[in-house]
């Protein structure tokens, strides 16, 4: 049997709650500072917005063409295929050579790199300071016991910094409580910040999730390749109107 510990009730006031409070406070400050440093949302240029909007129209037609008649479907299909094979909606002219452009000459690349550096600074500096503070003042503390049983596979996650291999897995160390708060404070941030976008940005900084390359952006596919792929997809779309046989179906339902 694993030995049981008699925990001092004052641990929750002097260790558990201070760690949680500091992490919540630092998270809110980091969200506000990040929002101030971002400088507000940037407007999408009209040509780039038109380029992406046309792709959205093509996708909506491909997914919802069943509400059209056969004639309407053919007219729209011919229009979209013909337009996708031209450069009418391109935001920028496409170069003839296949040599990839230097991403550092694109202003959006520099902005993305600068925003990534700011996000890394706003992530690593507070986490380093909090981790150092916990290691200096609360290293080796066992601060709570979970009210439900766990398997031994959770021992390394919940008892980090406590060199007691025979201790019951339900006990949680101070350093492990820091990591639990780091990954599980999203509901608290949602209640306090009242802004889902700020919460998503904050959690993205903590998890270091990379953004998906956009069309025509740094590392993303070229717009002409995307347009031609959409034109090929439209050529094989099968049309089946929801109004075909509607009279018979209504009569059968009644």
TrEMBL record:
**UniProt keyword terms in alphabetical order:** Membrane, Transmembrane, Transmembrane helix
The UniProt family comment states: Belongs to the EMC3 family.
Membrane spanning stretches? 13-33, 124-144
Places the protein is found: Membrane
- Recorded protein name is ER membrane protein complex subunit 3
InterPro entries cross-referenced by the UniProt entry = EMC3 (IPR008568), EMC3/TMCO1 (IPR002809)
Q: Is the keyword Lipid biosynthesis in the record?
A: no
Write down the membrane topology.
Multi-pass membrane protein
Q: What is one term from the GO cellular component aspect held by the record?
A: EMC complex
PANTHER family in UniProt: ER MEMBRANE PROTEIN COMPLEX SUBUNIT 3
């Amino acid at each position: 049997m694993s030995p049981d510990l008699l925990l001092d009730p004052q641990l929750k006031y002097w260790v558990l709650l201070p760690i949680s409070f500091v992490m919540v406070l630092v998270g809110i400050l980091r969200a506000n500072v990040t929002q101030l440093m971002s400088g507000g949302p940037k407007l999408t240029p009209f040509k780039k917005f038109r380029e992406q909007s046309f792709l959205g129209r093509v996708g909506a037609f491909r997914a919802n063409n069943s509400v059209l008649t056969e004639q309407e479907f053919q007219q729209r299909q011919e229009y979209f295929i013909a337009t996708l094979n031209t450069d009418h909606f391109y935001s920028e002219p496409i170069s003839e050579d296949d040599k990839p452009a230097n991403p550092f000459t694109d202003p959006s690349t520099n902005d993305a790199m600068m925003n990534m550096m700011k996000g890394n600074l706003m992530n690593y500096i507070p986490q380093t300071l909090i981790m150092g503070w916990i290691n200096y003042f609360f290293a080796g503390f066992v601060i709570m016991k979970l009210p439900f049983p766990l398997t031994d596979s959770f021992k390394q996650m919940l008892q980090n910094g406590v060199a007691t291999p025979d201790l019951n897995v339900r006990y949680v160390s101070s350093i492990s409580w820091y990591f639990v708060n780091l990954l599980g404070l999203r509901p608290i941030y949602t209640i306090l910040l009242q802004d889902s976008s700020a919460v998503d940005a904050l959690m993205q900084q903590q998890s270091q999730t990379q953004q998906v390359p956009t069309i025509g952006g740094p590392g993303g596919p070229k717009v002409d390749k995307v347009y031609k792929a959409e034109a090929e997809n439209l050529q094989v779309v099968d049309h089946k109107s929801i109004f075909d046989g509607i009279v018979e179906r209504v009569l059968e339902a009644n």
